[in-house]
Specification:
single chain; 176 residues; 6-stranded mixed β-sheet; 26% helix
């Protein structure tokens, strides 16, 4: 007989978290499975901090920048590095842009997470790849994928209608 996995719901995950089951752990719920998040290295922290400062200064249209916080993506509860959301007192369920900074998680971020964010209609999904020093901009969500992918590398400037300022790839990675 094959063993069956028992997936948990977002409500169960949130209740367990509120009861302190995961105290001190960095986790996210992806499609019913609790996933351990890798520790963030210095380059990851630096890029996230630079993007946070850049975007926070540029947002002046009532949207908010959410940093490394839980996002309600259907029954999943990912913790993207950054999200540009409308103000809310609940977990955001919609975002104009979600940004993941990928040091060791690039494959996961460009497959599993990209599918998840496309499914829930995130208009733009950015993956900042530390190893390749690129920014991948996914747009036009269609069911479980994005119809368009643009890659920006050294010497280029990433831009979009949803991000309030251009992102110079060289300046972002300067000194790393």
């Amino acid at each position: 007989m094959l063993a069956e996995r028992r997936l948990i719901s977002a409500a169960e995950y949130e209740r367990m978290s509120a009861l302190g089951f995961f105290e001190g752990e960095k986790l996210e719920l992806i499609r019913g499975t609790i996933v351990h998040m890798h520790p963030k290295g210095a380059p990851h922290v630096t890029i996230t901090r630079r993007l946070t400062m850049m975007l926070a200064r540029a947002l002046d249209d009532g949207r908010e920048l959410q940093a490394q916080s839980t996002f309600a993506a259907g029954e999943s509860r990912p913790e993207p590095d950054l999200a540009i959301v409308s103000p809310t007192v609940e977990l955001p369920r919609a975002a104009d842009v979600i940004i993941e900074v990928a040091e060791t998680s690039f494959q996961y971020d460009t497959t599993t997470k990209a599918e998840l964010y496309a499914e829930v209609g995130i208009l733009e999904y950015w993956v900042v790849s530390l190893p390749s020093r690129e920014i991948w901009v996914h747009t036009e969500p269609r069911r479980d994928r994005y119809a368009t992918l643009r890659r920006f590398g050294p010497g280029e400037v990433a831009d979009s209608d949803k991000i309030p300022c251009p992102v110079d790839v060289d300046a972002l990675f300067n000194g790393l």
